[in-house]
Amino acid sequence: MNSTATAPRRPIDIVNASLKRRYGAERRFRWLGLIAVMLGLGFVALLLVSIVSKGYTAFWQTYIQLPVTLSAADIDPKGVITAADTAAETRRKALVRANFRTPVRDALRAQFPDVSGRTDRRALNALISGGAALQLRHLVSEDPALIGTEQTLWLVADDDVDMFMKGRSTPIDEQPGAGEARPSAATGDITLTAAADDFTRITTSVRGFLERRTERLDRDIARLERILADLAGEGAQISAAMDDADAAARDRLEDRAARVDDRSGQIARKLERTRGEREALGARLAAAAAGEPLALSDEMPSFMVAINGGMVKVQEATADRLSGTVVSTLASADPAPPGTWRLLELRTPEDDRRLSDRQVAWIWQLEQRGLIEQRFNTLFFTNGTSREPELAGIAAALVGSFYTLVLTLLFSFPIAVGAALYLEEFAPKNRFTDLIEVNINNLAAVPSIVFGLLGLAVFINVFGVPRSTPLVAAMVLTLMTLPTIIIASRAALKAVPPSIREAALGVGASPLQTQFHHVLPLALPGMLTGTIIGMAQALGETAPLLMIGLIAFIVDIPGGLTDPATVLPVQIFMWADSPERGFVERTSAAIMILLAFLVLMNLAAVLLRRRFERRW
Hints:
It is a single chain. This protein has about 625 residues and is an alpha+beta fold. The chain has four domains: about 60-165, no CATH class; about 170-200 and about 295-350, Elongation Factor Tu (Ef-tu), domain 3, CATH 2.40.30; about 205-295; about 390-610, MetI-like (MetI-like fold, Orthogonal Bundle), CATH 1.10.3720.10. It has helices spanning about 10-55, 70-75, 90-95, 100-110, 120-125, 130-140, 160-165, 200-245, 245-290, 355-370, 380, 395-425, 430-445, 450-460, 470-495, 500-505, 510-540, 545, 570-575, 580-610, and strands at about 60-70, 150-155, 170-175, 180-185, 190-195, 295, 300-305, 310-315, 320-330, 340-345, 370-375. The strands form two sheets. Strands 3, 4, 5, 6, 7, 8, 9 and 10 form an eight-stranded antiparallel β-sheet that branches. A three-stranded antiparallel β-sheet has the order 2-1-11. Strand 7 and strand 8 (about 310-315) form a beta hairpin. Helix 8 runs antiparallel to helix 9. The longest helix is centred in the first third of the chain and has 45 residues, at about 10-55. The termini are far apart.
């Protein structure tokens, strides 16, 4: 009987196999760690790119240049403001009551004298922000002698105009005319013919829209037919079941059959309407194939022709001819040579835009005249919040945040350092101090909203501290940041070598002198680092401040610690809830500023630690 015996594994082989597995596991762990770090950095980078891409344009604001006549009949009909003996308070009240909107509107209408009708004038006036009147009021209050003069001013534009100029309203594609264009008139409904097939782009776009719409209607028709067939089958089943049903079941089946009939009637009517719409679109496509003009609608991208200093909105078009309405009067009806006129495509349909085609034409003309441009948005840093995005700023929030952080620092730092010194250097080690240490560590993990509830219940309701003020906000944030600063301060005190204490005591210093003259100066850099981190945490808090009323709408910049105020995180929270598109970029811009402050504070903490830290 032959058998092959298995040789026993040597210890060295077992060790080598184990090492191979361990090295493999270590490599996998390193790769997993690297992947986790890269994913984290990728998500952070994606967040920053998203914020910056949405917010950087908020640092620029669109302005319109207009020659404004500061008519005394509108601003100061009684001569109160310009009178030399008028008291300051009387002049201020007269400025508040003065009519500064009319000069702004008159100046804008002078740029477009052909605009008539209440609706068109209202649309034209909407290009200028309501803050333009405030600009004039501030200008006249600084120099009343300007009344009765004409001033060329850059006035802030409406937020819709600002979004359009920044490309956040609708993309615009321009195509220069390749051939000569001949308008039939300068106003009203006109026709425009081109020597080349310059309008092929319009017909191609409209035909593509109609074809896509036809495909959707075909799908809708097929779906409605399936639903109608299913309802017919259900009705047949109900009729069959009624033959063998008793009286009670028959009543229930009759009710169900009635509901099925009603539903079938609704689907049949909807199907008929959809088929009619499909037939109409098919007829339009067939007519276009035969060379007839294609009609545009507000559901399609808009096309306009800029020619002879005016603008024509296209209504119907073929490859070389179009019919349209003049939305801005042409300087003449002379033929326009090639390259002097342009075809504009507004890819967002007019129904989906806040600006009408006529308003876009006015903006385009102002841009061609050099009367509209983007400038650095100083209002964002000097104004308080506002209902109008173009006037909203962060000045009130910045001042409120400054007051709140200064008070929080004054309240929390001495208390935290004193508590850390006592617990680390003087307190006896017993159950009571152990309980205090455990509670301090627990308070560092308490949700911040709890501190807001505590501030509302104690500081406001019991002690009567004014709500919506930096004072009560600082008191609440002090409670929240104390555990963080105490823990960091105790760690800094522990890092001081015992030899420093022993040497000080050995030369005759008292325990108090030892702590304040020797230990505390050496631990102070670590304490400052913890304090800055605590202040950065307080700067980014929102939830506790909402509970104590800092969500109030604050327009004026606070002048003191007990004035109504808000802070930057709460301002961001309020703007993020606003539906206007202009607030989206201002929200992102405010987040960028808040992140910059947080980065600077954390950088200061790192630099302080590296500058003053001593190693033993």
